[in-house]
UniProtKB/TrEMBL annotation:
InterPro entries: FAD/NAD-bd_sf, FAD/NAD-binding_dom, FAD/NAD-linked_Rdtase_dimer_sf, Pyr_nuc-diS_OxRdtase, Pyr_nucl-diS_OxRdtase_dimer, Pyr_OxRdtase_I_AS
Cofactor(s) this protein requires: FAD
Domain of life where this protein originates: Bacteria
Gene Ontology terms for molecular function: flavin adenine dinucleotide binding; mycothione reductase [NAD(P)H] activity; NAD(P)H dehydrogenase (quinone) activity
EC class: oxidoreductase
E.C. numbers: 1.8.1.15
Originating organism: Nocardioides oleivorans
NCBIfam families per the UniProt record, alphabetical: PRK07846.1
Residues binding FAD, per UniProt: K50, D307
Active site: H458 (proton acceptor)
Protein's name in the database: Mycothione reductase
Length: 480
């Protein structure tokens, strides 16, 4: 057993790995990571999933070619080629990241799991050698991991999570997906587009339950045309499997036989691995580390960021938190913990999100139901359909059945302030189309005059955002 003291220890080298730049050159830093560098986003999250989704989008578009007069034959997808391209790229990036950190004179990398043994004191085991690490400042950037529900037969049958499915050796002819959130819906889109028969099971009455009701209903109806969706029921039991077909037994009496089973039933914080009590660090009932507006945790010299502490487990939030922690930790290293005057605060207003499936969904702010709960009658809603702008004609026509061609922009505003409360987009590249609305909310811009304050390129699809804003302005004006 050895002991080392550092100026800074960072536990978790996902977004935590972005903190140390050349401003830390004069400080001794320990980086503790139990998996590959880059964390969830790089190795098994945003980046590989979106790299798998792009070919899925190409296949989905090609299948619609017939309706536009360009018949195309699609698939089956070359799974090994796609998998190796995607995972080869992320593995290379993670390895380069590790090599770069190992080369730095002021950084020691520990590839193991850190656990608190006291305030600002952690223990980590690497290849049987235990090191006690103490530090002036401790950053907890430990993220989340998939939840595995307690279902009889699951362990015996075998299952995948988003951590493992991207490395499957053999492409499944039939895939079972449990969970209708982001992970389940995006990966169902991938496997269905590549040619698998997908059955998706969700306990609620729609997929994407956290989204605006109109969005969730539109999305659910659309994907039901493409794969088997079982709603309002849960996985009760699993039989078979371990190499052979797996039978899913559902609470409503339904059954399905699949070759591979994906669990996409949510994620839980990794804080249970840290023994937070030993360091006096508080977590909430969900296991999220409690932080103040500076991303400072409840114990002196301890900080947290990203999925470990956030109610919005998204990479752009983790990146923003990491920039705040980086600034504040540097100040704390220079001036001590007590002088908070130069610390910056996190801003979690107008956090956007997107679901990268078909149809694609973009969102910022409150749903209509959330807005009405919070503001009662002081809410105005307007909507404009993709099919009713010029670019929509290019998308629609023969494609009337396509979920993106039938998409829309729905805006929710507060009547008394004339400001947006939320924006919801279902359309091609909805994740991009939503950005001007994110800007409007982030800068607290009034809806009145917003559409006419700039040019919108004709006949680009952004005209659907312009038209929705004009409709909302009229709706707000109708009262005022
Ligand atoms: C399939 C999937 C797709 C996603 N797609 C998107 C997307 O399109 N857009 C988006 O914004 N977000 C997406 N996300 C969410 C995004 O990946 C996370 O919000 C982001 O990775 C959080 O970053 P983080 O640094 O907080 O945590 P992580 O990236 O999870 O990093 C935490 C790190 O800490 C390590 N660790 C944990 N405990 C310990 C310990 N005790 N000792 C040592 N190391 C430890 C872990 O091994 C991990 O590497 C996706 C997630 C998944 C699963
Ligand atoms: N595009 C993106 O930004 C993106 C993509 C993927 C993941 N993520 C992040 O990852 C997080 C986790 O995603 P997720 O999809 O795993 O979780 P989620 O919480 O979004 O969805 C899980 C779903 O599974 C259902 N469920 C749970 N247990 C069930 C059971 N036994 N039977 C049937 N249904 C069950 C729940 O009702 C819920 O709808 C998200 O909150 C998001 O922040 C983001």
């Amino acid at each position: 057993m050895t002991s080392e003291h550092y100026d800074l220890v960072i536990v978790g080298a996902g977004s935590g790995n972005t903190i140390v730049d050349d401003r830390f050159d004069d400080y001794r830093v320990a980086l503790v990571e139990r998996g590959p560098l880059g964390g969830t986003c790089l190795n098994r999250g945003c980046i590989p999933s979106k790299m798998f989704i792009l070919p899925a989008d190409v296949a989905t578009a090609a299948r619609r070619g017939d309706a536009l007069g360009v018949p195309a034959t699609v698939g089956p997808a070359d799974w090994p080629a796609i998998r190796d391209r995607v995972m080869g790229k992320v593995d290379e990036d993670a390895a380069e990241g590790l090599a770069g950190r190992r080369e730095a004179d002021n950084i020691d990398v520990y590839q193991g799991t850190a656990t608190f043994t006291g305030p600002r004191q952690l223990s980590v085991d690497v290849d049987g050698v235990r090191t006690t690490i103490t530090a002036d400042q401790v950053v907890l950037a430990t993220g989340t991991r998939p939840v595995v529900p307690d279902v009889p037969g699951l362990e015996e049958a075998g299952y995948e999570t988003s951590d493992t499915i991207m490395r499957l050796e053999t492409f499944p002819a039939r895939l079972g997906v449990i969970g209708g959130g982001y992970v389940g819906s995006e990966l169902a889109h991938v496997f269905s587009s590549y040619g698998a028969d997908v059955v998706q099971v969700e306990g609620s009455d729609t997929l994407l339950t956290g989204q605006d009701d109109d969005v969730a209903a539109h999305f659910t109806a659309a994907v039901k045309e493409r794969w088997d969706v079982r709603l309002g029921t849960e996985l009760e039991k699993v039989s078979g499997g371990a190499g052979g077909p797996i039978t899913l037994h559902l609470a409503d009496g339904g059954e399905a036989e699949v070759d591979v089973l994906l669990l996409a039933t949510g994620r839980r914080p990794n804080s249970d691995l840290l023994d937070l009590d030993a360091a006096g660090v508080e977590a909430d009932d969900h296991g999220r580390i409690v932080v103040d507006e500076h991303q400072h945790a409840s114990a002196a010299g301890v900080w947290s960021l990203g999925d470990a502490s956030s109610e919005e487990p998204l990479k752009h939030v983790a990146n923003q938190d990491a920039r705040v922690v980086q600034h504040n930790v540097l100040r704390a290293l220079r001036a001590g913990d007590d002088d908070r005057s130069s610390w910056v605060t996190s801003d979690h207003t107008a956090v956007p999100q997107a679901v990268f499936a078909h149809p694609q969904v973009g969102r910022v702010g409150l749903t209509e139901a959330e807005a009405r709960d919070e503001h009662g009658d002081d809410v105005a809603v307007a909507r404009h359909d993709v099919a009713d702008v010029a670019y929509g004609w290019a998308l629609a026509g023969h494609l009337d059945g396509d979920a993106e061609a039938q998409g829309f922009v729905k805006l929710v505003a507060r009547r008394s302030t004339g400001r947006l409360l939320g924006a919801h987009v279902v359309a091609p590249m909805a994740s991009v189309l939503v950005q001007p609305l994110v800007m409007a909310m982030a800068h607290d811009l009034p809806v009145a005059g917003l559409a006419r304050s700039m040019y919108w390129i004709h006949p680009a699809l952004t005209e659907v955002v312009e038209s929705a804003l004009l409709a909302l302005e009229e709706e707000l004006g109708a009262d005022g």
